[in-house]
Amino acid sequence: MTETLLPDDWLDRSRAAVSRTPLAPEARAQGRVTSLADGIARVAGLPEAPLGALLQFETGARGFAHSLGADAIDAVMLDDATPVEVGHRVTDTGDVLRVPVGEALLGRVVDPLGRPLDGGSAPEPEESWPVERPAPDIIDRALVSQPLETGVLVVDSLFALGRGQRELIVGDHATGKTALAVDAIINQKTSDVICVYVAIGQRSAAVERVVAAVREHGAPERCIFVVGGAAASPGLQWIAPFAGMTMAEYFRDRGQDALIVIDDLTRHAATHRELALLTREPPGREAYPGDIFYLHARLLERAAKLSEERGGGSLTALPIAQTDAGNLSAYIPTNLISITDGQIVFDTHLFSANQRPAVDVGLSVSRVGGKAQAPALRAVSGRVRLDYAQFQELEMFTRFGGLSNTRVKAQIARGERIRALLSQPRYSGLRMADQVALLAALADGALDRLSPDRVPALRDRLPGWLDETAAAALSELTLTDPLSDDLRKRLVTAVSALVDDLEGARASGTPVR
């Protein structure tokens, strides 16, 4: 028997020959459009296509599989469906819907697919990620331990937010919900947080106001604006929050901190209901399909604080929801309240009474952020909520009669100062040091001789006053160290001196600036 010996380079020459061999054409499944209406294409002949599969139509338009039937797929169109006709071929791309991610999107206004809406050139992303991504496992998460400062006194002191938290902003139409979220974005101009604003079904004018406010007062170079506006197709509106979450997760997974504002999930739920009814899914409570809870749960669960082994990044979510006549027990608000870690409730009556932000202190709560609140701020804000709640009850009872005694009069006067202190104009965020000084002065009685109508002037002048008269104290105040008695006394003394200056100017008739 003769043994055949192969040359030493036989394996290398064989690999080279294989690499020069042309690849066979890639096989892809194809189906046909059987019906088309209202942005929903019914496609037959793709039995292997999974849920969420990216489909390519003969005209070049794209869609994704929204629901799977026994003999057909209901595909939601992402592009103009006008050229698509019954009988056109549909190809399963073998991929799911993806969006671009990366730093190239910072400072840009894009649609949910990453296409520019600001008139600039198309961004060149580093990579693309699926819009549907699994939430981090429990073992990959860490405790929420760092504060996310919004600059809004009523939030930072009473309902503090932590990096990695999910806090619902809920209230009636036009009560200031978006304004609070935008103020939180603007306040990150002094932090390292990347911000993503997602607009769902919003009018173009409203989105333009948000973008203009961030560009004027914030740091737009660290923000991404994802717009699925009212004029966009239902498919784009539906994927908008998922696309924004994916874009934000890119920074979280790199060890950075990110904030996403979803404005708003009530409109997103309405879009999901519209698509469900068009695809003949059975309606449930308030005509919403039964999977609406799972839809928003799998979206918001993606916001989390990662462990150090995973990089230590965080993604904080501020979803917005709208109520009708303050009805928090409606289907979508109750769903979202049960999903999130707390809610900031806006009240129509407070808004009408010119209390801005119109936050209902009694109904609002933060179930996580208090543990992440700066120790110095936590030390001076403990009784504010209780005192303010007692004042609101006393104020209601005193409407039916006069003030009974001196103690009640003092409580009413103190409550009026608290209300004036918690009222804050837009785009006027306060530093943590300013908030600590104000609340310490309130607790120690340094504001008792200041009339409530002078509180706005105090708040406006305070940052510059502290920088000038208490710079050493400000340098000692940190996010992690507790508030010492000496430091507290120095801050209260500085605020008391400012109160004396304001009262002296009032007595002399000098206008306050």
TrEMBL record:
CDD domains: F1-ATPase_alpha_CD. The record marks 364 as: Required for activity. InterPro entries: ATP_synth_asu-like_sf, ATP_synth_asu_C, ATP_synth_asu_C_sf, ATP_synth_F1_a_nt-bd_dom, ATP_synth_F1_asu, ATPase_a/bsu_AS, ATPase_F1/V1/A1_a/bsu_N, ATPase_F1/V1/A1_a/bsu_N_sf. Keywords: ATP synthesis, ATP-binding, Cell membrane, CF(1), Hydrogen ion transport, Hydrolase, Ion transport, Membrane, Nucleotide-binding, Translocase, Transport. It is a peripheral membrane protein. Its EC number is 7.1.2.2. Residues 151-366 form the ATPase F1/V1/A1 complex alpha/beta subunit nucleotide-binding domain. The keyword Translocase applies. Gene3D superfamilies: 2.40.30.20, ATP synthase alpha/beta chain, C-terminal domain, P-loop containing nucleotide triphosphate hydrolases. The keyword Endoplasmic reticulum does not apply. Produces ATP from ADP in the presence of a proton gradient across the membrane. The alpha chain is a regulatory subunit. Belongs to the ATPase alpha/beta chains family. This is ATP synthase subunit alpha.
